[in-house]
Amino acid sequence: MTAPQHPYTHPALTAADPELAALVGAEERLQAETLRLIPSENYVSAAVLEASGTVLQNKYSEGYPGRRYYEGQQNIDQVETLAVERAKAVFGVEHANVQPYSGSPANLAVHLAFAEPGDTVMGMALPMGGHLTHGWGVSATGKWFRGVQYGVRHDTGLIDFDEVRELALKERPKVIFCGGTALPRTIDFAAFGEIAREAGAVLVADIAHIAGLVAGGAHPSPVPHVDVISTTTHKTLRGPRGAMLMSREEHAKALDKAVFPGLQGGPHNQTTAAIAVALREASQPSFRDYAHAVVANAKALAEALLARGFDLVSGGTDNHLILMDLTPKQVPGKIAAKALDRAGLVVNYNTVPYDTRKPFDPSGIRIGTPSLTSRGLAPEHMTLVADWIDRGVAAAGKGDEQALAAVRAEVGDLLGAFPAPGLPV
Hints:
Elements lengths: L10 H6 L1 H16 L1 E2 L9 H7 L10 E2 L2 E2 L5 H18 L3 E3 L5 H12 L5 E5 L15 H4 L2 E5 L10 H11 L3 E4 L10 H11 L2 E5 L4 H5 L12 E5 L10 E5 L4 H12 L5 H14 L2 H23 L3 E2 L8 E5 L7 H10 L2 E2 L1 E3 L13 E5 L1 H5 L7 H17 L2 H15 L10
Parallel strand pairs: 1-13, 5-6, 5-7, 7-8, 8-9
Antiparallel strand pairs: 2-3, 4-10, 9-10, 11-12, 12-15, 14-15
Helix pairs in contact: 3-11, 4-11, 5-10, 7-8, 12-15, 13-15, 15-16
């Protein structure tokens, strides 16, 4: 009798393109055997993976449910409506658009909806933890719009809201973004809301990193305080690589027109389906447990790193993310990140506020706990993780490959007891 195949053994792919199939298999093993600490990465469930690979891929669906430019939408309209209604329920919003291809186009759609080329937009500076698409100069949002940026205090690593208010009242931006990619502390949406109202700006909360924490009640919701919410659907939300825009009903028409026909054509229906699955998972009590466990693990890991002499931006974390300045360790972030990768600890090198090094060779590394929490690791494991990071950084400074290999073996031993969701390995 033939043994049943795992749905992700890829028999058709292996037959059609064995070279590509081998690379997919190698990535499956890599994700299974390494401790993934990049805060923007996660594991999706087998159900999300299956939805991402369905025959919905075959269908074009320009427009919105009930208002399409192609026929044959009987099923697609229901899929998209399901995703929209689940987004509205999970986040408690009046309107949701699940069509943006990813977070950057979603943020570009916000600019298209509420500003004209040359208008002023305001966001956190990229080196301080903001995102390219919040008006930073090298992005289209900084080239087509006039971007002004706020930062964090040098002494605390926290946002100075007096400075934010002063800048907003001076520059009078059309749009203000709050949120970013390297913010380890709770975002004070209420404080941003007061400033935006006083400045007459549309306030946008980019919660791409913390959407799962918001959905699970582990981070305050921006809904009472902002006009628009932009988010990716992966990261802490554990969905596919897509995005959503959510808002009050008064902004629904402007946002929908900005997404389609403003920026893109037909939505990726297979991704919409996977978003719907992820949102159903996010509505379950177990997801709330997961979101709180992500934060508990991050706080435990931060405490263990502080005990080992690491310099953490803002002194710790309130969410899933830890930003480390390795200057006191005398190891550049890029060298440390590459060494930790060889040790089975996958991180990314990252600038820190007021970094004196270049962005491609910065002083810091950025780590997070979403993926390891998805595998079932708990606060009692974080001392061991901190020890591995400590040993890995020390080995990076000495060029000690034997020490890195020893850490990798220990990582593999632990992860064997904590299989990753959705992986066949």
